[in-house]
Design brief:
Length: 283
């Protein structure tokens, strides 16, 4: 009898703790996944990383064949030299015309002088265009070296030397190592008193014996609702439900870990349990 009473007391205490400190097993590790997107098109001539490799910001991930862009750079340099030569000729012609006009007024018509000035302006604009083209080509050549924009982990790498990459199409996934958080789903009835900054405890399924201290970073302001969405023949979708059962909706809560020990490796998509501490004596 005493054992039964003790068990009931224990269950009651646990239930009270659950009411005061909401808990869920419906949590997952999340992180920002950067889609590495080449800025130029071409075949890969060198791979500098392997699948699941850890990289630092600025590390070269792979190289695109630069020969096309090197040739374009030489062409742009030649175009700039040609534009500068045209500018110098236009300036010299304008200088000689004005000098002649000063020595022999009326030797050149006013329209001719204006044309000489216009030719200088046009040649000057040509130099600016050539410089811009050279800068663009130089950037394209630099873009053949595809680098990591942040510290992180390369994942699901399928590229190989010889693979063709296309400009502005994602080719590599990079998990930002400094962006991990926990996304936990709590019943709407459990979070009415929860605010950003509340203390939380996270237990990763991968490391069940190492609870981690955390804080509530934010609480979601909305979830998708299927009822009323457009279905077949433009009619609304309405899911059947039981009138005598009213289930609480689950709201996403973003949890920020205070500190992650060196011996724990967070991985996107892995499971986590989260408990939010609401009682004053535990904060």
């Amino acid at each position: 009898m005493l054992l039964v009473l003790a068990a009931l007391c224990s269950i009651g205490w646990k239930y009270q703790q659950y009411l005061e400190q909401p808990w869920t097993r419906d949590g997952q590790v999340r992180a920002q996944v950067i889609q590495i997107t080449p800025r130029v098109t071409g075949p890969i001539v060198a791979m500098h990383v392997n699948d699941n490799a850890e990289v630092q910001s600025g590390d070269t991930l792979f190289e695109i064949d630069p020969r096309t862009y090197e040739a374009a750079l030489k062409q742009a340099e030649a175009n700039l030299a040609q534009a500068k030569s045209k500018l110098k000729k236009a300036q010299d012609d304008a200088k000689r015309g004005k000098s002649l006009h000063r020595r022999e007024p009326g030797a050149l018509s006013q329209s001719t002088l204006i044309k000489l000035d216009n030719a200088v302006e046009a040649a000057d604009a040509g130099v600016m265009v050539a410089k811009a083209a050279l800068e663009q080509v130089s950037l394209n050549l630099a873009f053949t070296q595809v680098k990591a924009p942040a510290d992180g982990f390369v994942t699901n790498l399928t590229l190989r030397t010889g693979s063709q990459v296309v400009a502005n199409q994602p080719s590599v996934a990079l998990v930002d190592r400094n962006s991990f958080w926990i996304e936990a789903f709590f019943k709407e009835t459990d979070i009415k008193d929860v605010t950003a900054g509340a203390k939380a405890v996270v237990t990763l399924m991968t490391y069940p014996d190492q609870p981690l201290e955390a804080r509530v970073e934010s609480i979601g302001y909305g979830i998708a609702h299927k009822d009323g969405s457009t279905g077949v023949e433009l009619l609304p979708n309405v899911n059947p439900n039981f009138q005598w059962i009213r289930l609480a909706q689950r709201i996403p809560v973003r949890i920020k870990l205070d500190k992650v020990p060196d011996d724990i490796q967070l991985r996107v998509g892995t499971s986590a349990s989260v408990m939010i501490i609401k009682t004053a004596q535990d904060v």
